[in-house]
Amino acid sequence: MRNDFKIKNINFCCKRGTLSQGNKQQVLSFTETKLLELLLNEVNEIVLKETLKEFAWQHTVVTDSSLTKSIAKLRKALAFFLEDEELIITIPRVGYKLVSNDVTPVAEINKLTDLEECLATEDSLIQATESTSEQQSPMSLRNKILFVLSVLLIGGSLFNFLRILPSDNERYIDDSYHLTELSSNGFTHKVITPKSMELPQEISYLLSQQNVTAFSWSIKYQTILIFLILILKNLKG
Predict the structure, then answer these.
(1) Angle at 230 between CA 224 and CA 235, to 5 degrees
(2) C-beta separation of 36 from 74 below 8 A
(3) Spatial distance between the Cα atoms of 17 and 56, rounded to a whole number of angstroms
(4) Residue pair 17/79 in contact by the 8 Å Cβ criterion
(5) Which of 44, 152, 167, 213 is deepest in the core (most CB within 10 A)?
(6) C-alpha 86: how far from chain center
(7) 60-73 burial, b if ≥16 CB within 10 A, otherwise e?
(8) What number of other Cβ atoms are within 10 A of residue 11's Cβ?
């Protein structure tokens, strides 16, 4: 067995045979140590006299009187720490029982301590991970800024490309269509319509209200206008 125990706030060391609490200490004999060890391992259970004698005296034959004297010394050692409480009770003609709901093997306490240390280590790792994530966030922000700048550069390149498109657009129009230019408020609207179609007044008025320079293509009379090409360049007059 050789387990160490904590009885309430008393420490019992099987190897040294001592009971201690702060600066107070009681040293037990070998027999008393063995008896207390067995009773603690069977806490709240009846331990037979013969079982106690075999465990504490091993191969030596002893009487019940020797067991009774050793139990009395053990009770006195425990009473040094717990004056108003008797842990070991006698079961007449049967044996003894150590009664307590506050007995813990030290091995289990160590396991709890190890678990607490493990949880503390995990908390430290989580905090370190969060700290690393916070340090990486500026990099993510930088990537976003670079992405926006890239989009602006592509947009600017496209705009410059559209500006250098040929200004003489009429030569690209099929013979069955003709180009009509409408100027209003400093903006020019070029409308491509079939030669057989006259541009309706309502469409001319609609175009005059749009403050942009653009191409429009009217396919049928019922079609209001479809703007096919984005702003090419600002043609004035």
Answers:
(1) 95
(2) yes
(3) 13
(4) no
(5) 213
(6) 50
(7) eeeeeeebeebbee
(8) 16
* Sign of the four-CA dihedral 52, 55, 57, 59: positive
- Nearest residue to 40 via CA among 13, 61, 21: 13
- Find the length of the chain: 237
Distance CA 197, CA 175 (A): 13
The Cα-based distances of 143 to 81, 137, 138, 152, 154 in angstroms read: 69, 10, 9, 14, 16
* Residue position matching structure tokens 């009681």: 26
* pLDDT tens digit at each of 237 positions of the chain: 557 899 988 999 998 999 999 999 999 999 999 999 999 999 999 999 999 999 999 888 899 999 999 999 999 999 999 888 889 999 999 999 999 998 988 865 454 444 455 455 556 656 656 665 555 555 578 888 888 888 888 988 877 766 665 555 555 566 777 777 777 666 676 777 777 777 677 777 776 666 655 555 554 433 444 343 333 334 444
Cα 76 to chain centroid distance, Å, stands at 54
Give the separation between CA 135 and CA 217, rounded to whole angstroms. 55
Distance (Å, whole) CA 48 – CA 127: 55
Angle ∠(96,45,60) on CA atoms, nearest 5: 45
CA 223 to chain centroid:
59
Instruction: Check: CB of residue 191 under 8 Å from CB of residue 199.
Output: yes
